[in-house]
Design a protein that fits this description.
mainly beta; single chain; six-stranded antiparallel beta sheet; 4 helices; about 375 residues; seven-stranded antiparallel beta sheet
């Protein structure tokens, strides 16, 4: 398996070669993708013919995905019911034709209720017995949240010449059957409890973009919900930092540690104890931190970049700085812009077409969390001999 995001290559150890194909189980989380590469003959790979946990077989196939049931879908400008269209049936058809992800603006193919005005699609739906709501504006891709299979109790990878590596997420007694007939048994006791990194957090903002130099947060929440207008309408890169304590028991050998940022809007650069762990740009926002933590105090820094929409909505609360048509398009280029001077009314952004009104919905912004550290066991399984 080749991960196109990280470049990591893993040799699959649990698969079934059958007439006309090969069966294996892929666990893909949100926005996940993997290339399955057939490079070596199956018999050259140290592999397992089966795995059982506490006597129950670990299947190579997942469960069927339950259907998405659309209860109600409305599309129109925020707060303008006179120009809001019921698109329930159209959204149902879009799901059939396009699946669980598509651009909201595609709804215009069956009529636009407010031409040249930014509209919001609001959908109430049900999947797997769970009622949910989702919303997105014209330019965004709507992504219906689907229940995913839980991460497998155990995953195994093989090395060209060496042991099989078993990563175990659920305690229990595991029986691993090698393709040659031998068996291996692993017993894994209770795993360390996940550690919640609650803060408090310091958030620093760049100068001259309307936000204060820094704020303190006792708990994480979307910046778009903050009481200070400069924070609520901030667009750019906000730098979060906190210190947290790690108990020595979480750092015992034989465990792989993962830092999970929870919800992020929309991308994050992570530094742990001064070590740059790179940029996370899609969910799940997780990174392995094995060997990077120390007993006692640790320091976490997360730089989060959000969208320009927030600041553009905020600017609509300031006086106009250019001549506009009723639909928000520009009549002429303003003199201050052509002379490369700041806006005379204090606006931070400029567009040739006003896409956002001051009552427009603010997208989620910043590090929202929850931020956690979790551990799962890693065991080496000899692949040779009885």
């Amino acid at each position: 398996l080749w991960d196109p995001v990280t470049g990591r290559v893993e040799r699959v150890a649990h698969f079934a070669a059958m007439q006309g194909g090969t069966r294996l189980r892929l666990h893909l989380e949100g926005s996940g993708a993997v290339f399955v590469v057939f490079r070596s003959p199956a018999q050259s790979v140290a592999r397992l013919s089966g795995i059982a946990r506490d006597g129950v077989e670990v299947s190579l196939t997942g469960r069927d995905m339950p259907p998405i049931i659309i209860h109600k879908a409305l599309w129109g400008p925020a707060g303008d019911p006179s120009r809001t269209k019921d698109v329930t049936d159209q959204v149902r058809r879009m799901l059939t034709r396009r699946g669980a992800q598509w651009t909201v603006a595609e709804l215009a193919s069956e009529g636009d209720p407010a031409l040249n005005v930014v509209k919001t699609l609001r959908v109430e739906y049900e999947v797997g017995g769970r009622r949910m709501e989702i919303s997105a504006i014209d330019s965004e891709t709507i992504s219906f949240v689907l229940p995913s299979d839980a991460a497998p109790d155990v995953t195994v990878t093989a090395s060209p010449a060496g042991p099989i590596v078993a990563e175990i997420r659920t305690p229990g007694r595991y029986t691993l059957r090698l393709a040659g007939g031998a068996t291996r048994t692993l017993s894994v006791g209770p795993l360390p409890r996940p550690l919640s990194i609650d803060g408090p957090w310091t958030v620093r903002f760049p100068p001259r973009w309307g936000a204060p130099p820094a704020i303190a947060l006792n708990r994480l929440a979307s910046l778009s919900e903050h009481s200070i207008a400069g924070v609520r309408y901030f667009s750019g890169v906000a730098a979060y930092s906190t210190a947290f304590q790690v108990p020595a028991g979480l750092l015992q050998p034989g465990y792989r540690l993962t830092l999970d940022l929870g919800q992020v809007a929309v991308s994050a650069r992570v530094r742990l104890n001064g070590r740059d762990l790179g940029i996370l740009w899609h969910a799940p926002y997780r990174v392995e931190v094995t060997g990077l933590l120390r007993p006692g105090e640790n320091r976490l820094e997360v730089e989060v970049a959000n969208l320009w929409i927030n600041r553009m909505v905020g600017d609509e609360h300031l006086p106009e700085d250019s001549r506009r048509n009723p639909d928000g398009t520009l009549v002429e280029w303003p003199e201050w812009l052509e002379q490369d001077r700041p806006s005379p009314t204090g606006r931070f952004t400029f567009t040739s077409w006003r896409l956002w009104g001051k009552e427009g919905p603010l997208p989620a912004s910043g590090l929202i969390g929850p931020v956690t550290l979790s551990a799962h066991a890693v065991r080496l399984v000899p692949a040779r001999g009885r």
